[in-house]
From TrEMBL:
UniProt membrane topology term: Multi-pass membrane protein
Name the UniProt record assigns to this protein: Bacterial sugar transferase domain-containing protein
GO molecular function terms listed in the Swiss-Prot or TrEMBL record: phosphotransferase activity, for other substituted phosphate groups
Cell inner membrane found in the keyword field: no
InterPro entries, sorted: Bact_transf (IPR003362), EPS_sugar_tfrase (IPR017475)
Primary localization class, coarse: membrane
Domain Bacterial sugar transferase: 271-450
Organism expressing this protein natively: Candidatus Wolfebacteria bacterium GW2011_GWC1_37_10
Lineage of the species this protein comes from: Bacteria, Candidatus Wolfeibacteriota
Amino acid sequence: MSTKELNAIIILMFSKKLKITLIFLGDIAILYGSLTLTLLIRYGQANFYDSFGAHLKPFSVIFILWILILYLSDLYSDKFLKNNLETARIFSISIAINIFLSVAAFYAFEPFFQLTPKTNLLIFSLIFGVGGYFWRIILSKFFIAKGIQKQVLIIGASPIISFIIEHLKNNPQTGYNIKLWIKEPLSEKKFPELSANIIDNKIETIITESHIKKDSSAAKIIYRLLPLGIQIIDLADFYELLFQKVPLKELEETWFIEQITTSRKLYEIAKRFLDIVLSLILNIIFLPLTIGIAFLIKFTSSGPIIYKQERIGKNDKPFILYKFRTMKINHSGPLWTAEKDVRLTFVGKILRYTHLDEIPQLYNILKGSISLIGPRPERSELAKHYSQLPYYEIRHIIKPGLTGWAQLNYKPSSSLEEAQEKLQYDIYYVKNRSLFLDFLIILKTIKYIFISHQ
């Protein structure tokens, strides 16, 4: 990746961080502004300062909870910077959850807070709900205003370009507007026309397929555009930044040689340490639940409590994965579990729905056969079936995990086509794996289990 491309990607990432920062700072201001307005409505100016002093400390603690729930609900993502029903729905659900948790916190910690507001909390929540929602709408209009969006030229004929253009058209808050699209090969004789179009349309960014840059004549033409201050971004990198997955159909083996690191020693040591610590803590937390589930399985269906199954791990090595048994014994059937699978026991259905059948895998983490975060290990039969997918073996250069990027961003695969889509997220994780991304996956997993699990 060239320095120019790297700078363009950094600018895109900075743009996203700037948006998140603005949303966050706005929420902080609206939280305290809503509290101020609530107390003025309730007590008037005469008693405002006394009431504000009494409410400031407890509400400041509650605000941390509110910000966390908003974050877990993805409301600091630019995809919610638009006025639609989905934004309103998610925002309303988050406010409702925050009200419930705030009531619980005020009553649980009454000796510390020294107040249990009911009417004030309701008024505050209504004011913040309206203010927080419209703050996002205002920011959306600000970001798509003239001069905020970068004008983009795309060079290439890849099928995913149409998909990217449609996505940017429907999501103007991303900050990019496709102004020109050149499908035919670049030629020297058309350079004056090309440079004139770039100047006239105020093009700031060129997105191009990697093979075009490898063509010497096309590369020379693109090089001559650099003095115009144009940023050059590879199509695969731009796709990855937009969708947090890699465009497998567009990649060649050279991309993997350049982009995939097979070993990151310091990261792997730190990750293994965290795996051991967190799995020990979770084992202690879940111990009463583990005992209860074991009794339920034992007394509601015949067969073992723990189900053992061979899965494929790092470097294609098989290992035994442990789960609570959710199916009737001696039942064979399809490789994929259907939504209303007759093989599931009554307790098994509950365990599958809540993912509590995964608890015994904490032992797998302690053993080191899997990590807390990574691509989900597949059954040997499925792994063999999926091996026909291009680049499938790349997901096996790292340890599999209890939860992963693909699981959070795509539904469970029930076909080879869906497995290929899911593989794009797995390879994104392999390429970008870090402690920061692992922490983000943990937060998103908590959100999925407690907020958005369906």
